[in-house]
Structures
1.
Amino acid sequence: MTQLLLFNVTNGLIIGAFYVLMALGLSLILNLSNVINFAHGGFLVIGGYIAYTITPYIGFWGALLLAPPLTAVIGLAVERVLIRPLYGRDPLYSLLLTFGLAFMIEDGTRFIWGPQGKPVTIPAFLAQPLSNDLFFITGYRLFMVAVVMIAVTLLFLLLRYTRLGIRIRAGTLDLETVAALGINVQMLRSLNFAVGIFLAGLSGVLAAGQLGLEPTMGTGLLMPSFIAIIVGGIGSLPGTLVGGLLIGVASGLTAVFLPAASEAVIYVMMAVVLLIRPRGLFGEEGMMS
Amino acid sequence: MNVLEINNVTKRFGNLVAVRDVSLSVAKGELCAIIGPNGAGKTTFFNLLTGQHAPTSGRIVFDGRDITGTPPHGIAHLGIARSFQRTSIFPTLSLLDNVWLAAFARQPSWRGLAWRRTDRYPELAERAMAMLDEVGLAGKAGEPARAISHGEQRQLELAIALAATPRLLLLDEPAAGLSPDETQKMVALVRRLKGRYNIILIEHKIDVVMSRSDRIAVMHFGGVIAEGPPAEIQRNAEVRRAYLGGIAPP
Amino acid sequence: MSAESTRKLIALAAIWITLLLAPYWMAPLGGYTALATRVLVLGLAAMSVNFLLGFTGVLSFGHAAYFGLGAYGAGLTLKFLALSTPLALVAGTLLGGVCGAILGTLIVRRRGVYFAMVTIAFGQVFYYIAFQWSSLTGGDDGLRGFSRQPIDFGFFKLDILSSADNFYFFVLFCFALVVAAMGFILRSPFGRTMIAIRENERRSRFLGIPVERHIWIAFTLSCFFMGFAGALYALVNNFADPRGLHYSQSGDFVMMAVMGGMRSFWGPLLGAAVFVVLQDYLSSVTVNWMSFVGLLFVLVVLFFPRGLLGFIQRSKA
């Protein structure tokens, strides 16, 4: 029994780590620019496919390092051309745009790389389980969690100590004042978007190794990311972090007792949070609109 | 009995004291003006009266009833109407509809809310037209509100507040952003309303305020530093120091 | 009668004549009656979404859930309860509407993108349920095994099952009922308060309008309308699709409203017609129709946000 429990909770934490990576990127973009990036899953897919494409030339580690920034560059271009014109307007339009973009990306990847899943090779030493007892903890899973932890730490360091990070945080609270202080808000939004997409691309590379690569893999991760943000509290990055882990673990735990409901439980959690503490665990009053 | 009694009202936002121990009363038919430099707490004070914030301490008594902390839509039903410093109207609705809506919302019974056609409320339409007439916009009743000039929008702002048949009218800088000519018109308008409504007026422009107010309260740094009839205020040295800045009285 | 209201009357007459004669003018143009029926139902759904989106200004993006609920409600009724089309329609409408009413209470305090996110997430709950509860709903394959029943008026039976034309007129009748209801509501003081809330929520509050309550009412009404549209849709295909509950379906409805013109009453119907025809054509011509639909979204948002009717209104002015 404890084996099973341990297995599922660990699994849950690993999945949760994954949700965290996705949700953080989504949250960054949402908080500063008030844009719900429906195409976030699409950028995950792009990250994965770019990694797949360049791995033959520079190997797994090279792909891990290069694919996310490349994805971020694509994100920058998208933001500049498609999303920037929409900032002043009703948030409806950016919603619809990223929505359409998601379609285009999914179909586009299908067109370029074909509808079949692509095999992704990961370094052999990572594919080994840690020990025979803990067979479910493969090196790769640990590696994934490690990468997520590093990425999250770097993100928080960026936000806390760099100029860009401080400006992003200030902009989230009051963009008008930030602009009045002479800071180039356009550039800020673009860079913020790029950081968010970087995280999505990174998720894609990691996911490719774990789940296999196919055009539809991004959409399944979008909803849990949403819920992680709602549960953790809109406007709060630590909240998103906690939210992602929570729903991952809850999902894992439920899988022990009621396997069919493991996906449903995250929706239930969302409903409970909305009923009891609508602003989310770490959300602040007034961040709701 | 005074229409409105404000007793020792204070509002703190964290460490910032926006309104400090303010007391004021408005008698029937009075036009009471609140003046003071920017940041003195005048608009925050209005926000307390209209329920946008609840006071940290103190009481607000309206017609003998304690209304401290009542939320905005409750305030409206008590008969307190407000105009805003930054024009706050419904741009795509016609002028008539803007005012009509205000009149409708104040009705005790909302019969026919979902099915009666809006043109089947003759009393309301009449009242709305009367209010537009009062502010001088009757000729443009059918136009969308975003199509009229800024000055006319300020007048519409006033008409909306009047349409609610208020027991107490709160005017927040009605002359904000108006040219000298338009300001004159607004002054005349406010003068016409005096006596028929109980009014509290926040204003920056002294000529609007001095000539016709019954009483003036001067706010500075959240507190009232002087209160009394215009002549007294003009003579008050402290007020002059804080606000009038040495400008000779008219 | 003023020139303005004469113009409106003529436009209205033109619309209804076009709709009444659809089975006759569609065939020569390469269309077919069932397509018109589909457009009518989807148009109704788009108009219901617009009731909330365009007129109250509320960003509800998960509205397809109530459409799907209506479809399943109708299908399940026909399959397990009674072979009665009217009952199925009522059941579907109630299912969609009541769920909307309940969920509405949870979310009316939120605004903007938060509201959108929550409506999407809730919508997905229903999608998930439809998928998982496959013993009842047929899961991924959808709900089958039912069909629309002829309606017995006592003195004659309206065969809507085998006659596409009959069914079209039946749907048109239902459409007319709902559209009339919408029109009444929008013309009433409540309609005014809806617009007021859209234009200036703070001011509305200060006038004494109970904003949250009105948003809830508008939300609930539009969910009832959506449920009805969904129920009709189940009858169109004799099939209820879990994908009808997915947020991408919501996106389609919103797009129809935007394409047709959000600020106009009939715009969404026009948008639905264009969207359906375009999507049908694209999926028959290329395998990558999805990217073209996505491209359509992007182009409309960037270059055509006021939609077709908004465009026409502007060139008149």
2.
Amino acid sequence: MQDKKQFGAFVRSKRGDKVLSIYWFLILFIVTGAVIYMASSFYGTPYDVRMLESHELGNQIANCLTSNGYFNDNALDSNFDENILSRCNLNFNVEDNYGWTNKSEYYFEVGIYGYNKGSFNLLGPQLADIRAGNPNLKTTWQLSTTSGESAVSGFFSNVLSAVSNFFTGKRKINTIVIHTTDGSSASGAIETIAKKDINVHYMIDRNGYIYSSAQPPAQFANAFVPEDQAASHAGCGIGSSALTSCSSLPASSGCIDKNPINSNGILDAKCQNLSNPPQSEWCCIPGFNSNSIGIELVNLGPLCTGINGGFCENSVLLDGYKWENFSNSPDQMNSLSTLVADIALRYKIPVDRDHIIGHYQITTYKTDPGPDFPWDSFLKEVKAKELILSAPSQSGTGDKNLPQGEMRSFYTVDRNGNQYVVQVLAIIGKVEKNV
Amino acid sequence: MSNHFFERRGQVAETTTWIFATVAVVIIVLVSVFVSSFLGSKNGINQKAIIADKSSDVFAENSLTSFLLTKGDSGNSIYKELQANGAFSNSNGNLAKSILTSLYGAYYKDGVYVGIVDLSNKVNFESNDYFGRSPVLTRKYQPGNVVALNGVNSYVYLEGTKFVHMILAGSYSR
């Protein structure tokens, strides 16, 4: 009996050891698996080499366009972009193994410009435009990098110190209205605005200095309001009172009562095309104050007739008036394009003539900024600056699903002494898993 | 009775200990896995981006070479003018400043400098009328004990011990 008991205890003890061994193996397995998982999840993520690749892509293109320091002027041939990959010894054979053939996860764009020492980025007229790859990447890259923070750059400090109310989002802004002061000095214009009890967001002096609520003049600070407040710069009134009838205007104004919005709330057909307004009536599209940013340029406008000397000596004769020439104030235009690029980027305002407009497009009795204003080159410069402002940091901290890239420029000359500036944008698409 | 009773109590206590130990191990493992995967995702691809070498800049070096090949007022290349004069003239100094600061001033925030340096003269800094005082490049230790300059330091040989010296200081960033 005693032996049986002892034998039973022995069997139980053996079975217990077996269970214990299995248990230990199980625990060991779990812990080992967990350690392997932890190590692989911590150290196993792929390296993001897209910034490096886009940098090298840009370098390769730059080297392809120059030879011994001279510009390869074959690049100006109209068919240069055909077979550009083989011309520049670019191949994506390795990447094609990961499906790039179908997805085309690269894009590059080369702009070849004449050299213009007067332009902020030295860009003169565009001579050639070479593109290859997937153009959708550029759009995604631009959108993914659109943020006000990107504008924080010493290069644009003049604008940044003037800009106020980043990202307040208190009102929906979709238009930028450009005005001229029709006067020769900022101080005079600011005083006039303040005394009329109207206001504006920004005023740019001829030397490029930007007045705003963030950096107001010593006197008449009330002439400026921050971006989150509507300014009374593009209303349909005279002064602060809305004009609903010609009765408030003198007969000599030639005003004929014409409410641009009819009883059905629709803009009168006569006022729909303000570039060809009715001769005897004035039209004004209401509502622009609430959704726009107003920028005044210190400029004499059409007032040069009969004035000799000063700015008017270099004025241009257009539409029967002598207009002060905007090309005489490059610093002012430089500040304007930078400011507009910054605002357009922050509020995602399209850079086109429907959204960046002159005051004359709202009100037929206004002419500013006048026929001399260089809309085409101005919008081109705004787009170029927007691209620079929106360019991502090169620290490579972008999202793995968003493309990474950079735009760089270099100066070059050909053997005939012609000078060029070449702008190269190189973008690499998203990282594929397990690449 | 007492032996059997204590034996059973001992077994229950031992089993309970094992169960608690198992639960503790599983909890520790789960927490560790969670923390490491969280840190892994945080330190993942974004932190592991490999950034291009900042101590050389093909674009800026191309611009410098092309600037030196540009015809100067004398009809010769600026390179030859600099060889002859040993210093910038008003015309080529302003051109150098216009090109280098316009194209790279925004990105190299600690300064852009181009000048003529005589390497036989030991100076702490260089200066000229067009770029002012040369910025200082700092050395930065990177992983793997690699010492990298915080910017671009590029020389083009002129003659004797004289070189055209370009310094683009500060990390290339916006």
3.
Amino acid sequence: MATKKTEKEMDETPLEQDDSPKVRYSTIMLQEQGAKYKTLLTEKYKNRVKWEKPDLRKIYSEIPGTVIKVYVEEGQKVNEGDLMMVLEAMKMKNKILFTQNGVVKKIYVSENEKIPKNHLMMELK
Amino acid sequence: MSLKRKILELQKKREKVLQGGGEKAIEKQVAMGKMTARERIITLLDENSFHEYDMFVEHEARDFGMATKVLHGDGVIIGTGTIFGAPVCIYAQDFTVAGGSLGLMHARKITKIMDHAMKMRVPIIGINDSGGARIQEGVNSLAGYGEIFYRNTTASGVIPQISVILGPCAGGAVYSPALTDFVFVVDKISKMFITGPEVIKTVLGEEISMEDLGGARVHSEKTGNAHFYAESELECFDQIKKLITYIPWNNSRKALPFEAQEPKIDLYKIDEIVPGNPKEPYDVRDVVRAITDDSDFFEIQEMWAANIVIGFGRINGETVGFVCNQPLVLAGVLDVDSSDKAARFIRYCDAFNIPIVTLVDLPGYLPGVDQEHAGVIRHGAKVLYAYSEATVPKITVILRKAYGGGYIAMNSRHLNADFVFAWPGAEIAVMGPEGAANIIFRKEITEAEDPEKMRKQKVKEYKEKFANPYVAAAKGYVDSVIEPRETRRLLLHAIEVSKNKVDNKPEKKHGIPPF
């Protein structure tokens, strides 16, 4: 356990210095107010994934399961509501449908393949 | 001055206020694709039913040049009216007046109409369209927000509270809608967030548009903050009107009954909807429509956590709340979000005397690291809590699969369901036949000459023995195994005979639900 620091010592603590394996000090600067706020940042915060605008053309799995059958081929034109594949998961032959129109650019899964959640299954163009 | 003159004077004063923030501001509002606050109220309520109060309220701010500023009605319109004859209290923030910013008197008007709604025990509808706190009024505007939140909480479960987001609703302001029962959003118009894109960019360096951060779709699909999504304001008002017909005026009443109607049985053939093979998906909403009056089903939170379906329908003219697993989406599993969604709706129905019908077909809770780490234990417990706590008539129909913890959670007899029916295809067991056979007969299977053949045989054995409704029926956990076509008749009867249900729970201040 690190001993409690006085305010002055806190001010002098260099940024990015580890105080314990789980938490560390850093500062956040709010520009418009020109004030500095000292705060604790956790490992979870440090490891967070930066938000990026999702690419809707890339289709990811929403549940882990086994690909039973793929109903489309690369280069095929597809419409919203068309059957993409059957993914067996949680004792159910889940029908995965296209939610947009497009052309299949690449298929990343094959039949009988076990896939985890958030696995890139297909790409449209 | 003669009275006639005074009347003229009043008319003039009124006219001024009715202009809101003036022509230019109204033009801007229209350019954003939005109706004005008054138009919204008049469109939503029954014709000529709206009566406005506190029209001449003025703000008392003196600092930062506010003393000379005239803000008509202080940026908010309050009043009473009716929707299909049902009395409601309503307020609408007027974005054309100082951006609908919330100052002390603005908040006082809102709390006044909320207090009125509570006294009269009628629903309160709040239309939000505001830039946020009026900064010139400092802590007074914060006081205003706090007083609204306090009233939202006090009124919760006593009168229906409806929030309509028709513009920005940012910062602390978002917590009033979050505390209310139903939140309505409209595409491209509604924006809700705690901190806007600017602050996120400054602090975290992440760039995101307002729409991607807190637009109508985000709150309808991702966050679950919104309950109803509409493409236009007019569609949104139609949804609100429809909702009002399903719910009672307050918690000591029942929803007004409608004339009973038969379902459209030629469209929804109840015998043919659920496939015999438990691995085949189907849309559970078709089963609901095969049961309800006129096959009408008013779904809530349609796009969020779609693996559970919630909403209102009528049976024999009476409003019923439906909670159904949806095999079409994620195999119908219970997970963090669907548990949250179901639990809150169950508590809503319980608070407002609406019987709950639960249609069960689920493989159980969703396994996985992300679910466990997202707190599926804590969230899943909400479903158990909500069903156990509810004292309205609780009726369960097991359509097909009811395995493990999912079976218990979905209003089983053990959580004090009043009626539990099962269709003949129901499989009520501690887990699916494959999983169960692999565990029980592990030794036989591994030691067999042909393990695969042995496994199949044992799965078949288990299926015959346990994957049916009769084991549970033999214990009285299922009251009756019924034909699908008998469902509506039995539900109708069950609701009928439950009218005087008394379920005395021990007295307490309140429970500690796992939220």
